[in-house]
Amino acid sequence: MRMRRMKNLESRTENCADYRIVNPADLKGNWKSLKPDCSALWVEVGCGKGKFTAETAAANPDVLLIAVERCREAMVVAMEKAQAMGLKNVFYIDMDVANMEEIFAPGEINRLFVNFPDPWPRKKNAKRRLTHRGFLYKYCQVVTPGGEIHFKTDNAPLFEYSLEEFAACGLRVNNLTRDLHKDGTVGIMTGYEEKFHGLGTPINRCEIVCQPFVLPPEEKKPKQEDAL
Predict the structure, then answer these.
(1) Where does residue 115 rank: exposed (0-12), middle (13-18), buried (19+ CB within 10 A)?
(2) Could you tell me the pLDDT band of residue 228, with boundaries at 50, 70 and 90?
(3) What region, left, alpha or beta, does residue 211 occupy, with left being phi > 0 and alpha being psi -120 to 50 degrees?
(4) Which of 118, 179, 183, 226 is catalytic?
(5) How many CB atoms lie within 10 A of CB 101?
(6) pLDDT at site 227
(7) Rounded Cα–Cα distance for residues 110 and 108 (Å)
(8) Quick check: is 118 catalytic?
(9) Would you say 173 and 207 are in contact if contact means Cβ atoms under 8 Å apart?
(10) pLDDT mean across residues, the chain
(11) pTM for the whole thing?
């Protein structure tokens, strides 16, 4: 997510310091220490301004939710939402998704949310798509076998591409829909989702069951710059 620079970014970030994890690698393998009584660890990739994040955390107080957002301007808005709601089970990291294996231990995550990622429509940028098999490989290292990836997008071509990637990696897909809210609003929406649903844009969604798989040798795993 791109936003205008905030002149008061540092002071606003400092005001929400309790919600920000500055050195996430220090918690690798021990994330649940942030909420020892949690029933599960959920991670959201690219939380944006954090509407989905805050509402999901509020609706699931027994779960520990970690939100990843590389745009600090967006992240501070998300943290302010959580702070205003008095949430105690959500924390935020500003990092690139390509570094997930450095931050989370194998099988540590129980559920991963990938909501409305950049579709990177040009073919030459396919490896930057967060549902490319290189990223799927990384997710399946840190999500426990049998854990789920919940994926939503309004971009039909990206959704079809993603389904092909899931199949190529041998990952089972459940609860697939190409029009999630056709018969009424389902689940918690992101701010982006609310906007486009209001315009009549169908929302695609599915759940992917994670399991380790072998990445074809010709496929290079995404580097940090691939996630930009």
Answers:
(1) buried
(2) very low
(3) beta
(4) 118
(5) 15
(6) 54
(7) 7
(8) yes
(9) yes
(10) 93
(11) 0.91
